[in-house]
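Deliverable D4.2, example record:
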Amino acid sequence: MSQIAQLSEAEIEERFHVTGTLPISFLLVGYARTKDQFTVSFGGEDMMLTTLLDAQPAGDRLILDCSGSAEINRRFLESGHNVFAGRPGGIHVQFTTGRATEVIFDGGKAFAVPLPKHVVRLQRRETFRIETPRGKPLQFFGRLTGGKLLNFPAHDMSVAGIGMTALTLPDGLSPGDRLENCHFSLPDDEHELFFSATIRHITPQVGRTGIQQWRIGLHFENMPAVEENRIQRYIAKVERERHELLAK
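Output generated by the structure prediction step:
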C-alpha cells in the first residue's frame, strides 16, 4: 500500500505539492511538450480525455485541447470545478482548476482554464489516496483459496488498491496471498468492479474505543483501465464534495 495514506495533510503538501505560478507553469508546459494525456472529471458524472497545449503564467491560464464531443464540450464550459488526473512518466499528477472558456490556439479551437493553485505530483509507486466515507463504507468481497468468503468495510482507496478494516482476522489470511474473484460496488454505480488482488499488509491497530482491529491493504492486480477510470471518477467526486463542504 502507498505510504501516502499514513501521511498528514501538512506532510503531503510539503512533499508532493508544487506551488507558485512559475514552477506550476514550467511543469505543465513540460507535459504539453510531451503531449501527455489527462482525464478531466467535472459536473459530477462527466469525464473527458484531453491533452495540455500550453501554460501561460502572464495570462494565468492553462490551454488544453477540446473533446471530440460537442455535448461534452458544452457541459465542460458550464463546470466551475474541474479535476485533472494523469500519469506522465508513470508519476501520478493531479490538480484542480476553475471554469473554462473557449479560445483560439494555434489557429484551432481550444479551452483555457485558470492555472491551478497547486499540483499534486506523487513519487513513483505512490498513488493519490482518499479516505472513503465512513457513514456508509464501501464493502469489499473476496474469497480465500479454500473458498471462505471475505467481507470487509473499506477505509481508503486509490486507483492501485484499497485499505480495509477488520474486527476479526480470518484464519489463513496472510500478506502475499492472492485473492481471486474480488468485487465491490461504488456508490450510485450500477455495475460492480471485479478483479484479483494481493494482500500487501495486515497491520494490528487499537481503535479509539480500545477495541483491537486490523488494517488490511490490498493491491489490485488486473483492474481493467475502464474500471480504473470509474475509481478515478469516484475519487474526484469525493474530493470535490469535501472541498465544497470546506468552502461553506
